[in-house]
Amino acid sequence: MDELELEFVLDSRLANDCIVLGDFPLCRLLLMNDAQYPWFILVPRRAGATEIYHLSKEDRQQLMDESAELAELMADSFAAKKMNIGALGNIVSQLHIHHVARQESDPAWPGPVWGAHPPVAYTQEQVEAIRKKVATMLTGDLQLIQA
């Protein structure tokens, strides 16, 4: 583990709004606590990173690989009509990448999910079902963290 990973602390707003599912080699995998959408977030475990260009070349490539793998598996597992992937950071400056599997039947379609509707929290049973789905969906490099 390098020094930047040792100093990594998840932004409190992400910690409050999300459920930690596990770690890829670079990123922490979060589930947005809104049962209306399959919505995952990747957060590179690098202290102080607020922009993709703050990452080393190797970390940028790893982030792209992890994001692409997650997006492809989400699209297949959740029958997405469209994958919305984005790094905004206007409210939470810590570098994080949203991955939302969109369907024409979701409550915000075709508009953005941000602020469209008040979030609907997952039940503990729903979270456990998603953990199991993630465990089968993402194999290999993902190590689940028990929360």
TrEMBL record:
SUPFAM superfamilies attached to this UniProt entry: HIT-like (SSF54197)
Superkingdom, taxonomy of origin: Bacteria
GO molecular function: catalytic activity
InterPro entries linked: HIT-like (IPR011146), HIT-like_sf (IPR036265), HIT_Hint (IPR026026)
Residue stretches making up the HIT domain: 41-109
Pfam families linked: HIT (PF01230)
Protein name: HIT domain-containing protein
Native organism: Neptunomonas marina
